[in-house]
Amino acid sequence: MTSLVLEPTSTALWQALVSDAEAAANRQLDETLESYLVLTLMRFTQRPELVSSVMALEFLDSAQKAGQQQHAQLRDVGDKCLLVSGLFPQNAKRRLVSIGYFVNMGRSAYQQLHDKIHGFYGQLAADFIPMMDVLHAMRELNDQSQHIDLLDAFELWEETGSQHALERVKDGSSGGHMIKRDWIDGADTSH
User: Fold this and answer.
1) pTM score, whole prediction
2) pLDDT tens by residue, 53-84
């Protein structure tokens, strides 16, 4: 008698990683957002050049296109910005812009797409920050050195209201860094 051994699919592995990251970030994405994030991660692994493009030019170029071509380009810009802001925040530093720059561009791309074709792109724009927080937690799951640095976390929290960045600031500020702990504890977290 032969036994059947089922290998987990890459979709199942990504799903498990996203679920673990949600728990680590103390964020619960709804099923639609979770599925979209898994599919975006799967698509990225097949096209790693996605994050090396100049997204601002692609975003501007999308205005010159129409129909499906424009929709695909706006989706790609939103997805790339999500991945850069969540998985590769160090790329923002290399490009001499804040992580919030990619957040704002990604949210704008998704919102424009929603304005054109509706669907769930409005939800992607609205929940960009929680998805980014999950991706930050994903980076940190196996390597705590993957935290964004304290000043970048402070800037990200201040610009976007990222709860994960705020936790990073709180954790870092308790270690004697120069950010005033009483100011952080009293900060408005309702972004």
Assistant:
1) 0.82
2) 777 777 777 777 788 888 988 999 999 999 99
Distance of CA 132 to the CA centre of its chain: 3
* Within-domain flag for 130: yes
**How far is it, in rounded angstroms, from Cα 94 to Cα 134?**
22
Rg (CA), the chain: 18
pLDDT digits (tens, 9 = 90+) for 76-126: 999 999 999 998 888 888 888 889 999 999 999 999 999 988 889 999 999
80 in any annotated domain: yes
Q: What 3-state DSSP class applies to 130?
A: helix
Total number of domains in the chain = 1
181 vs 35: which has the higher pLDDT: 35
DSSP secondary-structure letter at 187? Answer: S
- Characterize 93-110 residue by residue with b for buried, 16 or more Cβ atoms within 10 angstroms of its Cβ, and e for exposed: eeeeebbbbbbbbbbbbb
CA 47/CA 146 separation, integer angstroms: 22
- Residue 76 within a domain: yes
On whether residue 9 sits in a domain, the answer given is: no
Domain housing 59: 23-142
